[in-house]
Amino acid sequence: MDTRQRFSALLEVYDTAIKELYVLGDRGFLDLILRLERRRREAAAQLAGISSFHLA
């Protein structure tokens, strides 16, 4: 599995986890949701950087 595939899979995991936590509706999960969203943004930025590097 190359780096781009790993980041794509990681984004899918983050998206699924965030959605499931929102569905539970427990305010105790708010900190976890925020951390997952931050990590998801970081992974998306890294994936975008990898993709733009391969296009250049």
Offer a quick outline of the entry.
The chain is built from two helices and no strands.
Radius of gyration: 13 Å
Task: Quote the average pLDDT.
Answer: 90
DSSP helix count? Answer: 2
> Helix coverage percent of residues?
over 70%
Global geometry? elongated
Oligomer: single chain
DSSP summary, beta strand count: 0
> What is the first-to-last residue Cα distance?
22 Å
Q: What kind of sheet is the major sheet?
A: none
Poorly predicted parts? none
Strand fraction band? under 5%
Written overview of the protein:
Helix 1 (3-24) runs antiparallel to helix 2 (30-55). The chain has helices at 3-24, 30-55. By secondary structure, the protein is mostly helical. Helices cover 86% and strands 0% of the residues.
Could you list some keywords that capture this structure?
56 residues, single chain, mainly alpha
